[in-house]
Amino acid sequence: MASESVGEITLSVVVPMYNEEAVIAGLVARLRPVLDGLHADYEVVAVDDGSRDATVALLTGQARDWPQLRIVRLRRNSGHQAALTAGLHRARGRWVVSLDADLQDPPETIVEMLRHARAGADVVYGVRGDRSTDTFFKRHTARAYYRLMRRIVGAEVPAQAGDFRMVSREVVQTLRQLPERAPVYRLLVPALGFSSAEVRYVREARYAGETKYPLPKMVALAWDSVANFSAAPLRLATWLGAGSFVACLALIVFGVVGHLRGATIPGWTSLFVAVLLFGGVQLVCLGLLGEYVGRIYATVQNRPTFHIGSDTADEPSAASEPQAVNGRPVAAARG
Asked: Which domain holds residue 43?
């Protein structure tokens, strides 16, 4: 865990925003007292994701009386994860917490998160212990999503943990080194294997305004999650091809037996067998091609294959040195 030093920013709070004019006053009213009460240097990085309302104007007004508030403006709407990436890249704190502006994730939880971080955790997840304020549909689709992601990525993915988390500077540096075009941080951060802790909280109702994650965006997030962390869609072609080939063989036997019994039209058997045989071969070849495409995709992602937590053969200070994986420097995870 990184230690604090005098003159450095202790905490950065990254807040992606898109058309959030209705919540800014309430967000500042709850977030600022919490951060001022930490008695530590901090900054708030508000990332405007191409808002079309008065979000920027209201943030500018708040910044006049709140010097710790920084405004990062994106030229166009790029999406929540892209705005979060921009905030992580601009944050300067030893710990960085990501927080949505709608106040569904209570800012007061940051105090407990920072306590866990100072105790040694590189990642502190905000876990939703109660989602009763969400709709029936959202609760059950979210449960299905996390169940699927735990099967794909691994059991280290916390159930019901979204993008409300605190990470150390080492985690931020590692994330910046990954060549992710469409990062899904709720899966990418657990996959790095840094030491972690959890803080459970009750998810509140949205403070004001409309949700920025309607069904189409939820589906897009689920697809990005599957495509980024699994070649299962490509392997599906392999299994379908293999199954179809086996079915083709069985149908070929059926056609030949029917021909020998004289129960088929002349010419039907040869045509039937040829179509099934070539169809099955094509599906198998498509599946094999998908396997190689999946491996190419994994290579292009160039994610580190491991993160060294500690090595007793190293000098005491060597465990914190950056490691090189696949020719790229990678920050070592703290165990």
From this structure: 11-229
Q: How far apart are CA 116 and CA 197, in angstroms?
A: 7
Token pair, residue 83, equals 């705005």
- Could you tell me how far CA 224 lies from the centroid of its own chain? 9
Same domain (yes/no): 191, 259? no
105 CB-near residues (< 8 Å, 6+ apart): 99, 126, 162, 164, 201, 203, 204
Regarding whether 164 and 92 lie in a shared domain, the answer is yes
100: Cβ contacts below 8 Å, ≥ 6 apart: 15, 16, 163, 164
- Is residue 333, in this structure, part of any structural domain at all? no
Distances (CA, A) of 271 to 243, 263, 274, 277: 21, 15, 5, 10
Maximum Cα–Cα distance for the chain, whole Å? Answer: 93
Both 94 and 236 in one domain: the answer is no
| pTM (two decimals) | 0.67
Domain count, the chain: 2
For residues 84 and 205, state if they share a domain: yes
Q: What is the mean pLDDT of each run of 10 residues along the chain (335 residues)?
A: 55 93 92 93 93 91 93 87 89 94 91 94 86 64 70 67 89 86 81 88 72 65 66 69 75 78 74 75 74 70 50 43 42 39
pLDDT for the residue 318: 39
